Amino acid sequence: MLAVRLICVGKLGEKFWAEAVREYEKRLGAYCKLEIIELPEQRLPQTPSAGEIAQALDKEAALIDAKIPQGATVIALCVEGKELSSEQLADYLGRLTVTGTSRLCLVIGGSCGLSDKIKARAALRLSMSPMTFPHHLARVMVLEQLYRALNIAAGGKYHK
């Protein structure tokens, strides 16, 4: 069974986000072994300089890097990434498993995004949209699309 680690910078605050995440964790149990890791977002001043942002992203990158399992295929969620349909994501994940990939690591950055170091490590830079979403919503969206893609790959009827 595919082992999936979702690394998220920032904590879920509101109860409704946590409930949505729990629902997809439950659904994904049929398709993968899911682990969600939350890392602290670095504190920044109200109007941070480019240098302060870069320093914060570097600190977050070190924390993220330490949590990426050895041998895992990394997918970085970033606005400049490639946009895929649900079917294309299902195909991508299917090709990974056929080639022997057993560990997948998806990474969602905090409010300032992801460090270039993490993006460079990724086998795929994935964008859900050119629009900006709060990372809480992005987490739910990633889990839903992961569920949808794995269901499609398994020949399920969830996707219409």
- Low-pLDDT sequence parts: none
CATH superfamily: SPOUT methyltransferase, trefoil knot domain
Distance between the termini: 25 Å
Outline type? globular
Integer tally of domains:
1
| Overall pLDDT confidence | 93
Helix share bin:
40-55%
Query: Total number of helical segments?
Result: 5
Question: Judging by the overall fold, what is the CATH architecture?
Answer: 3-Layer(aba) Sandwich
Tell me the Rg in angstroms. 15 Å
CATH topology: Alpha/beta knot
Structural class computed from helices and strand pairing: alpha/beta
SSE pattern, N- to C-terminal: EHEHEHEHEH
Query: Strand-residue fraction?
Result: 15-25%
Topology, element by element:
Elements: E1 2-9, H1 15-28, E2 32-39, H2 50-67, E3 73-83, H3 86-98, E4 103-108, H4 116-121, E5 124-127, H5 135-153
Parallel strand pairs: 1-2, 1-4, 3-4, 3-5
Structure notes:
α1 (15-28) packs parallel to α5 (135-153). The radius of gyration is 15 Å and the shape is globular. The mean pLDDT is 93. The chain has a single domain, classed as Alpha/beta knot (3-Layer(aba) Sandwich). It is 44% helix and 23% strand. It has a 5-stranded parallel β-sheet with strand order 2-1-4-3-5. The protein has helices at residues 15-28, 50-67, 86-98, 116-121, 135-153; strands at residues 2-9, 32-39, 73-83, 103-108, 124-127. It has 5 helices and 5 strands; from the N terminus they run βαβαβαβαβα.
